[in-house]
Amino acid sequence: MKLKRYEGNPVLMARDFPRPVNSVFNAGAAKHGDEYVLLNRVEDLEGLSCLWVARSQDGLHFTPDPQPAMVRATEGHYATYEEYGIEDPRITRIDGVYYITYTCYSRYAPCVGLARTSDFRAFERMGIITLPQNKDVVLFPEKVGGRYARLDRPSIVVGKCDVGGDIWISYSPDLLHWGDPRPVMQPRKGRWDNKKIGAGAPPIKTEQGWLEIYHGVRETGSGVLYRLGAVLLDLEDPSRVIGRAAEPVLSPAATEDFLGDVMNVVFTCGAILEDDGEIKIYYGAADQVMCLATAPVDEVIALCLRGKEA
Ligand code: BMA
Questions:
Q1: Which of 17, 116, 199, 249 has the fewest CB atoms within 10 Å of its CB?
Q2: What secondary structure, in 3-state letters, does 119-135 show?
């Protein structure tokens, strides 16, 4: 099973934006009323990222807003954490509010911020919800066992200085204070996701379990190689892996996956499950452009169930 790349890729490029920017990639995705919304990571010409909304009626053709939605704070509380920019937003709708988890970059290394919006016009920061180094936070769209839940990826040092990371779950009464952390899954030795892994799109609820599209990284002779994988987590206890696809669902293969600032990268922060069972996975290619790939969700789930447990 492989995701099908949209033949009109890329769906967004730097030149689509109303002012000169370096790149657009790793967007969070949501359906708000009859509109598809991508909250893009847009890197400016200085190399600092902000978050910028683009809208679409069909999920294929997107128009960026005139201005970014959120730019790094340069004064006040958040300036400490956002000094080098804000990146890789994920959007989760909980009880009608869209929560955004995003990477805050600063001299203190990455940590994760939480913001919210009800309309994708006004955005409000709520707090910093991890210590550094942590990234790839995705919120579950509903409480699990009476608590909010999230996946995250605290970085760990492997060997003397190499950085790796596993996917963890933790829980919260209020989305701001998190605890009860448990490991969920690890890189697999010798395989395509052997170096580090991180949650991609927020978990999608299906009858068979929580479907999580994640990224897996392998170190190669020419640098790191980012691919997308799929895993199914237990609905009642999402710290338990039901099945993890053995092979990636998307690997760099199209020209746009190689032609950019960082070669050999496909990276997702957002996916939408349509009523007809198609899953739309939006992904950044080569840290340069935004692309789309699709698959029947049942096929992705079947691949997870065929995979060995992590
Ligand atoms: C990760 C993040 C992503 C990026 C990827 C590949 O660590 O910084 O934003 O797409 O590396 O460069």
A1: 116
A2: CCCCCEEEEECCCCCEE
The helix, strand and coil proportions of the chain, stated in percent and rounded to the nearest 5, come to 5, 50, 40
Give me ligand 1 centre to Cα 309, in Å.
26
DSSP secondary structure letters along 257-298 = GTSSSSSSBEEEEEEEE-TTSEEEEEEEETTTEEEEEEEEHH
Residue 261 Cα: closest atom of ligand 1:
12
pTM of the complete model: 0.97
Tell me the mean pLDDT in the region 108-118: 97
Q: How confident is the model over 5-22, as pLDDT tens digits?
A: 999 999 999 999 999 999
Q: What is the enclosing helix (H) or strand (E) of 300? A: helix 297-306
Q: For residue range 131-163, list pLDDT tens digits in order.
A: 999 999 999 999 999 999 999 999 887 776 667
Tell me, in angstroms, the distance from the centre of ligand 1 to residue 132's CA: 16
Write the residue with the smallest CA distance to atom 10 of ligand 1.
287
Joined tokens for residue 32: 């708000």
136 CA to middle of ligand 1, Å? 10
250 in helix, strand or coil?
strand
Q: Which of 87, 267, 289 to mutate to test the pocket of ligand 1 (most atoms within 8 A of CB)?
A: 267
> CA dihedral defined by 228, 231, 235, 241, rounded to 10 degrees?
-140
Q: Which atom of ligand 1 is nearest to the CA of 284?
A: 10
